[in-house]
Amino acid sequence: MAYLGVETSLTGRRWVGPSTEIERQAEAMAQRSGLPRALCAVLARLGVPAEEAQTYLEPKLRDLLPDPRVLRDMETAAGRFVAAVTSGQKIAIFADYDVDGGTSAALLIDWLRQMGLPATLYVPDRIDEGYGPNPTAMRELAANHDLIVCVDCGTLSHDAIAAAKEADVVILDHHLGGETLPDALAVVNPNRQDEDGSLAHLCAAAVVFLMLVEAGRQMREAGQKGPDLMQMLDLVALATVADVAPLRGVNRALVQQGLRIMAGRQRPGLVALSDVARLETAPSSYHLGFVLGPRVNAGGRIGQADLGARLLASDNPHEARAMAERLDALNTERREIEASVRAAALAQAEERGLDAPLVWAAGAGWHPGVVGIVASRLKELTGRPAVVIGLDGDEGKGSGRSVGGVDLGASVQRLAAEGLLLKGGGHRMAAGLTVAADQLEPAMERLSQLLAKQGAGQGGAADLKLDGMLMPGAATVDLLEQLERAGPFGQGAPGPRFAIADARISFAKQVGTGHLKLRCDDGMGAGLDGIAFGAFDGPLGSALVNHGGSRFHLAGRLEINEWGGRRQVQLRLEDAAKTSD
After folding, report:
1. Does residue 451 contact residue 357 with C-beta atoms inside 8 Å?
2. In a domain, 547, yes or no
């Protein structure tokens, strides 16, 4: 049955509440632990057993961090890195142009700087060079360096690695590996085919962090001391969230500890970025994914490819401020380009049908720097994996985003192996591809078939999942602080979403460009403020402004709004449904 009887909400969605089993587990957990019932509902939905509730709420990195040596080639990679440091050899870092690549590079640059050593940073141009190492760049780096460390890339770059014969190459990556690995000195990657997959959820920055942990261990065994790695977890947290790595296991501890480090405002690049983004509170996982991450990415998308990595690695506040302002401006420009491509892609996808196993669109001249973001928007809208491709002459370059339980990277890699793509790879949640224009239709048809076999397109794309119901008076700061302990929330661990049932709309007004500000109450004195961004882009805004005294069920996520020194809970409204008379 639909939750609260909402079969079709104002935005056309069916509301789904917790199952009877989850309800039973939540009730038992609340009785056993004394924790708030709403918190227990979230924990039960996340699959946390009642006996593990307290330890889950306080993840300890020392308990969850794996031994780096469980990854193949790790000792070799760290040993070569330490040897280069000890003998003062020239080190180059070849990084991908996204947040994960930028943070991975910044981790190494920061670590080396603290050891008194410089490093050469090389980030390829997205349009001119494309993703990953290329033979020309690697050949030139090898001619002038003793060691090249490829981060967040390199696992499929056989020709490029072969071109770097004059230097040793170490690869620290997390993208899906092929049947054979490039001829590098070491390939550390939890997604190599000969790994057991237990650490497949790590992003590249986490792999780099583990390499630095192992490097520190080898240095201690030799009587040397390395930098304080705990202070570098802010970068690992940013990468983990921005690269949509699942927030479970060690990832959860990395992000939680990283957010604490970030709140201390010690890294000039992140301080400058937070300031230009006008963050008035310590960053949360939401801010990493939707505020800071997109700005770091902007340089690689439409501007200077290495700008994000240089900002994150900077130790000069004035230099960091200038780079952060440039990235902020590029991000604004990126949003304008994205809006244009998104409108065209959505119209095209709607013509094909939004209920297919794969939602896709392709267009001539679409900027390759925004196709991934547009794919994310289509995925969010439809609940299906999405691919968006920019065509340039006889070739198209695209990005895809997936949904939980559907491994997009493996399917794209298989397509490349079958010859339907010129190039393709990625990981479970995201992938990149290059396709010949005359193979576009058959490639997307085959990809749709592969994804359908994994369950894509099944179930209700329009379902809105809720953790339960709250009265306005129960939505307190204290409750929200308790709920935050179950975080950080993100990929693989969606944040709590509640329904406010049978609410009276006491105030509703359009603010800004298409946003809705409202206040609701239960008719007995307890009220709750709410905000719905983009509400007037659809039916939500006008229906609530013109409520005519009708009562509504409201659905959304709770957040703390800090203004003028006051902290109060507000509802980030996502949906509403008129109550039946």
Report:
1. yes
2. yes
